[in-house]
Design goal:
The protein has 923 residues and is an alpha+beta fold. It is built from 36 helices and 38 strands. It has eight domains: 196 residues, Heat Shock Protein 90 (2-Layer Sandwich); 139 residues, no CATH class; 57 residues, no CATH class; 74 residues, no CATH class; 102 residues, no CATH class; 118 residues, no CATH class; 90 residues, no CATH class; 87 residues, no CATH class.
């Protein structure tokens, strides 16, 4: 065999060293053992992927992992195996990596966790290592260590073909059990960390790395926003450190899911735990195990450079999401984590990346944020309070991040104080009130602070505080009437007194304007004045939802500016947001929602929660409810009343929907109404972990075990699960329910107790459901129904195989229901020989048993057999013209129980015939 890599010389050199110095042999064995159980103990795929990435060079490569005949094989594209690479493989202390990271270095020792005979085959040739062959070369040295020898020191040539499309393949005959699924979990992180790889294939699975023009890296189903920088360390920092001066730092931020606790990648995973929201992949100096950063000036310099890059990553995230990338206070997970978080926070405080309402950017060191606020409020007061951040950053979700950045918070009291010296026109003050209104609705402290708001009056004056002001259609001389342009419901909320709302709402012309408002708005006419007037009046009149249905026709804009009737829109912060399908209802414009009280919008008919249909005299299924005709026809009697929840077919999050329904007494009454539409629909069409509720049982409904799976733990209380249709008992409501139960009974994958099967068959109602194609029989098996019979006479059980008998109490009705034959129709027979005819009165044990049970002794006879055969089959008893029984307690007891009509007492009869005493009966 040819030896293209000069392995003979390598072996000769190593063997000479070992034989000349057994200490060197022990050192090599110990070094390899340290690598195998230490630094590289669980880095098999990491090292194979790193090697493949190094081999790929400038063209991103492909790595394919397969299991073939007990071998784990890792094939890669790129540069083939070289003599330098072979020398590195057989060195333990050297690497062929010319650039600081490369192909086949010390990391190859990771393969020893799964094999003791690795091979590397390439288009340029192949080599193999073998513990067994090494032992044969140095038997005395191996014996000293109990057969434990270095595997990766002696190398031999081998010649094997490489898979098409690849240049090199590592082949590892496995000495341990290994699942490709275990390796697959590491792939997405490796593709992100190793840009030298384009694709990794593991078994039948494949992952690819794609980079879009905007710098988003996609690995599998995950998308990462990536920011990268590189540079060169000063020579003084790398003296004495095995690390090249060039460094790269890459920050990767997951766009679809949170990162969770992570580690530093250098570029493959280390053991340095990090708590930052983004992943750092940086070429920092690491210890030989590649698990820990090598502390020192070189490492800290790279980390400082990486931290300086972090704001650039943050600036590429949508403005309102950027605070998610701010490291929050907490105990550092490592020294590296502490240094990196400190440096990142320092860089973030000085960079301009936080959004102002004006659209410009500001550094956290010069910014401040409202305790609570809105975009409108910030825009209105930013001149009085320069440096205010965009109002969305006032939300609680941003509070911890801004605190970590030391951004001061401005209270509403401070805002009101700053506004005291502002000279604004009445319309501007109206906008200020509109901006404050949503805050005042939910926070009493805000309402208290707003008591000092300036209020412009109709006569030109400005007063402090709305509590003593009036709101009227016409300004009245001498009174503190708010200027019409400044009037806003907030003033009423803060104590201003309004007049005439109920009367104004009753005006016919207002109703006409509302009725045609949608047509006018779509024609381009200004609807703002009408909206403002109606909503202010509705608020002043304190109307409740449904009191004035005509208000639902008022035209309101949705979030995109399209016009709709008010009762066709959903509040932006309605509890139904996220519960219903995203396109179920157009969402009301946030401007409108923020400007007007929630109660007023709901009074117009804007959807906030589930709504009801109530019809005390229904004429038919004509209420525009999903599947209403099916519910109507399934009811035992025509419904006398309809109390139903609308829009259930639009629900996307059913656990959340059920909580909302249960929290509202009105909707809950609809859910729990006997035979009502809502409970019927939810049981069949709601989705709990992907299945309708009626396909589950309550966790403690053990009598249904096997037939129905326990309901998943979704945080719903038992009474809600019951009302939703989760089963507590075996009630079969209709044909669909019957088919579901029969399908479950016919599922061979289910283990169902005989008692449950018996109850299920007994509970089947008369109906028009499809007969089952498979049924569960006495043997416990599930078999085709074509060959199964219903046992209508118990004595036939002796001659019918259990594999052909339905596991059920037999009846002709059940046979008709399931389209099965009766056992008596398929099996006939008679005793094979004549027994002894005996009168019941002549059997002393029978007489005593009947006396003890107070059962009249039957007239007539029984034919007693020493051995009873029916068509050659041994049975205990049989019914023909007269009963036949073996001369045993079991045979006589069954015949006696049948003729006396006490079949349920057959086991008691058997015990008493065996021992006809009161002790037997009482015991």
């Amino acid at each position: 065999m040819t030896d293209p890599f000069g392995t003979e010389a390598l072996r000769t050199s190593v063997l000479a060293a070992w034989r000349g110095s057994p200490t060197r042999f022990r050192e090599d064995a110990n070094a390899e053992e340290d690598l195998r159980i230490g630094g590289y103990r669980d880095r098999l795929l990491v090292e194979l992927a790193q090697n493949a990435a190094d081999a790929a060079g400038a063209t991103p490569g492909v790595l394919r992992i397969t299991l073939v005949d007990g071998e784990l094989r890792a094939a890669n594209t790129g540069a083939p195996l070289t003599a330098a690479g072979v020398a590195a493989l057989a060195s333990l202390r050297a690497s062929a990596k010319e650039s600081g990271v490369g192909q086949f270095g010390v990391g190859f020792a990771a393969v020893l966790a799964v094999t003791d005979a690795p091979r590397v085959v390439s288009t340029s040739g192949g080599v193999e290592f073998s513990a067994a062959r090494t032992r044969l070369e140095v038997p005395e040295l191996a014996a000293e260590r109990g057969g434990d020898v270095p595997v990766l020191r002696l190398v031999w040539p081998c010649a094997e073909p490489v898979p098409d499309g690849f240049t090199t393949e590592v082949r590892l005959p496995l000495t341990v059990e290994l699942s490709l699924d275990d390796l697959a979990a590491e792939v997405p992180d490796l593709l992100l960390a190793l840009p030298g790889l384009r694709r990794i294939e593991i078994g039948s699975q494949s992952w690819e790395r794609f980079v879009t023009a905007d710098g988003v890296v996609t690995v599998g189903s995950a998308r990462w926003l990536v920011e990268q920088a590189s540079g060169e360390l000063p020579p003084a920092l790398v003296q004495g450190v095995e690390h090249r001066p060039q460094w790269t730092a890459t920050w990767a931020y997951p766009l679809d899911t949170g990162l969770g606790e992570d580690v530093l990648h250098a570029p493959t995973p280390t053991d340095e735990r990090l708590s930052l929201p983004a992943r750092l992949i940086a070429t920092v100096p690491v210890e030989p195990s590649r698990r820990r950063v090598l502390p020192g000036a070189a490492a800290w310099s790279v980390l400082e450079s990486a931290a300086a890059l972090y704001p650039a990553l943050v600036a590429r995230v949508p403005a309102i999401e950027r605070t998610a990338l701010v490291p929050l206070p907490g105990f550092p997970l490592s020294e590296v984590d502490d240094r990196l978080r400190t440096a990142v926070l320092r860089a973030l405080r000085e960079a301009e990346w936080l959004p102002l309402a004006s659209g410009e950017w500001i550094a956290p060191a010069r910014a401040r944020v409202l305790d609570v606020g809105s975009e409108e409020l910030v825009e209105l007061v930013e001149d009085a309070l320069p440096g205010l951040l965009d109002a969305e950053l006032s939300a609680p979700v941003h509070a911890k991040a801004l605190a970590a950045l030391e951004v001061p918070r401005v209270s509403i009291t401070e805002v009101v104080s700053a506004l005291a010296g502002v000279d604004g026109d009445p319309g501007w003050w109206h906008d200020v009130y509109a901006a404050f209104a949503p805050l005042a609705e939910v926070d009493p402290d805000v309402r208290e602070a707003l008591q000092s708001l300036p209020v412009p009056l109709a006569d030109g004056r400005t007063v402090t505080g709305p509590r003593t002001t009036l709101i009227a259609d016409d300004p009245l001389p001498g009174l503190r009437v708010v200027h019409p342009d400044a009037v806003h419901p907030l003033l009423v909320r803060l104590g201003a007194v309004e007049a005439g709302a109920a009367e104004l709402l009753a005006d016919p012309s207002l109703r006409e304007n509302v009725a045609r408002s949608l047509e006018d708005a779509e024609a381009g006419l200004d609807a703002d004045d009408l909206i403002d007037t109606v909503l202010r009046l509705v608020d002043r009149a304190a109307l409740r939802a449904g009191e004035e249905p005509w208000l639902g026709a008022l035209a309101l804009p949705d979030a995109s500016g399209e016009w709709h009737r008010a009762d066709e829109l959903l509040l932006p912060d309605s509890p139904l947001v996220g519960v219903l399908e995203p396109d179920a209802f157009p969402v009301l414009s946030k401007d409108v929602a923020d400007t007007y009280p929630r109660t007023a919008l709901v009074a117009l008919g804007v959807v906030d929660g589930f709504s009801l249909v109530v019809d005390d005299e229904p004429a038919g299924p004509d209420h525009d409810l999903a599947d209403e005709p099916a519910w109507w026809s399934s009811a035992p009697d025509e419904p006398a009343r309809v109390l139903a929840v609308r829009d259930l077919d639009l629900v996307a999050d059913w656990p959340a929907a059920l909580r909302l329904l249960a929290a509202d007494p009105l909707t809950w009454r609809a859910v729990t109404e006997p035979d009502g539409y809502t409970g019927w629909w939810i049981a069949r069409h709601a989705s709990l972990a992907g299945k309708p509720p009626r396909e589950y049982r309550l966790p403690d409904a053990t009598l249904l075990e096997g037939l129905f799976d326990p309901a998943p733990d979704l945080g719903l209380p038992e009474h809600v699960l019951r009302a939703a249709g989760v089963r507590a008992t075996l009630d079969i409501a209709d044909d669909d329910d019957a088919e579901l139960v029969l399908d479950r009974l016919a599922d061979p994958a289910r283990t169902i107790a005989d008692a449950v099967v018996l109850r299920a068959h007994a509970a089947l109602p008369d109906g028009d459901f499809a007969p089952p194609t498979h049924v569960r029989v006495l043997s416990g098996a599930v078999v085709p129904a074509d060959d199964v019979v219903v046992l209508d006479h118990p004595w036939l059980l002796g001659v019918v195989p259990p594999s052909r008998v339905l596991l059920a109490d037999g009846s002709e009705d059940l046979a008709d229901l399931l389209d099965l034959a009766l056992a008596s129709e398929e099996f006939e027979g008679s005793p094979d020989h004549i027994g002894e005819i005996v009168g019941w009165h002549d059997l002393a044990a029978v007489r005593m048993a009947c006396e003890l049970l107070e059962v009249p002794l039957p007239d007539g006879v029984v034919v007693v057999h020493d051995a009873l055969l029916v068509d050659g089959v041994a049975v205990d008893w049989w019914m023909a013209d007269v009963p036949h029984a073996t001369d045993t307690p079991e045979g006589l007891a069954r015949a006696l129980a049948w003729v006396t009509g006490r079949w349920a007492d057959r086991h008691t009869f058997a015990a008493l015939i065996t021992e006809p005493t009161a002790a037997t009966l009482l015991g």
